[in-house]
Amino acid sequence: MDFSEDHDSSPAAEKNGRTSLLDSGEDFEVLDEEDIDDDPPPLEDAGGGKGKSTDVSDERNEDTDPDPPGQVEEWLDVLGNDQLKKKVLEAGQGRNSRPQKGQNVKINLKTSLKDGTLVEEQSDVHFTLGDGDVFQALDLTVQLMEMGEKALIQTDGKYAYGPRGRLEPKVPPNAELSLEVELLESTDAPDLELLAPIEKIALASLKRERGNVHYQRGDYAFAVNSYSIALQITESSSKVDITPEEEDALMDVKVKCLNNMAASQLKLDHYDAALKSCVSALAHQPENIKALFRMGKVLALQGEYTEAMQTLRKALKLEPSNKTIHAELSKLVKKNSEQRGAEQAMYKKMLGNPTSSNSGTQKHRAKSSWGLSWKWLFGATAVAIGGVALSVVIAARN
């Protein structure tokens, strides 16, 4: 079994002939907190496509540089950093028709490089707003569009395919993109309780695959978010009959999500959360080797070497030929031995050398006892001699 993280990159299946951006493996980087607010900024000057620009550079004398009639809508700086901009090409049905986070939307999308080179054209693209199903520039700007609106989006590479770019269709690393988007429809997300089991399994797998894309690109926080959404789907109650086989399939998706989430949490140094994910996975499948392996790694990172070694030995017993587990266990045994040696040396330094101290004490006592014996013998002799001398003096006087 390969332990280079359980993040397969299988493409999402097309459903009912519809194209999903999940199939393309795109991704985006985490925004800095100063780059974006919790909610999209208000668009006072974008409703209906007739607002005025707030850019100081555009405040020119109308007599000397008038705007010609029919000029296209001014750019809206979505994030305030000039790296994600939106311009209305055709107005939509009003602000009240804008889609909300959590809704499913359908769009037409034309993607080009900044120099005008066409990357691809897609029709009837479906995704869920706010779930991270598409790259960040698209997810953010579609929320600001009105139903029926056509807009032009210009985005920096950090909000599109990032430093890795994309292989097919070809997008260079950090490439700035121009997107032509038409919002066709928005619908509420399906009621999970009423979803057929096979549809629920497919939807959860789709979100998990998206999390795998985030993981492979190093966007571990977004990966955790996608796995969390997939878990919510697998754990949702159901009002539809489900067969034992479908229950097993749904549970398999759930355990895979927990395993992959634990791997992402490890990358983020969220050890307590990773341990909780491993424990949850093992609660459903006690002999899941990947869950045991990652749990052993988490425990080792938390300094619980004894418990970590026990967990890894259990995994190794289930799969004795696994070299990755062998290597991790050997490294852990060596590290534990070194730590115990260091602790013993520290204790000796704190308490001194008990053997040497006891030996010195015994020698001192022996020496003291020998000295005491000589003193007693000398004193007794002196008393005896004194007694004899006294007797002689008394006899002489008589």
TrEMBL record:
Q: Where is the composition biased (Acidic residues)?
A: 24-42
Q: What is its EC number?
A: 5.2.1.8
At the top of the EC hierarchy, this enzyme's class is isomerase
The record's TPR repeats, renumbered to this chain, cover 204-237, 289-322
GO BP terms:
negative regulation of apoptotic process
Using the UniProt annotation, give all residue ranges assigned to the region (Disordered).
1-72
Annotated catalysed reactions: [protein]-peptidylproline (omega=180) = [protein]-peptidylproline (omega=0)
Q: Which UniProt keywords apply?
A: Isomerase, Membrane, Repeat, Rotamase, TPR repeat, Transmembrane, Transmembrane helix
Keyword Zinc-finger tagged: no
In the UniProt record, which is one GO cellular component term?
Answer: membrane
Q: Which residues form the PPIase FKBP-type domain?
A: 102-187
Asked whether the keyword Membrane is assigned, the reply is: yes
Highest taxon in the source lineage: Eukaryota
UniProt name for this protein: peptidylprolyl isomerase
**Organism, per UniProt?**
Pleuronectes platessa (European plaice)
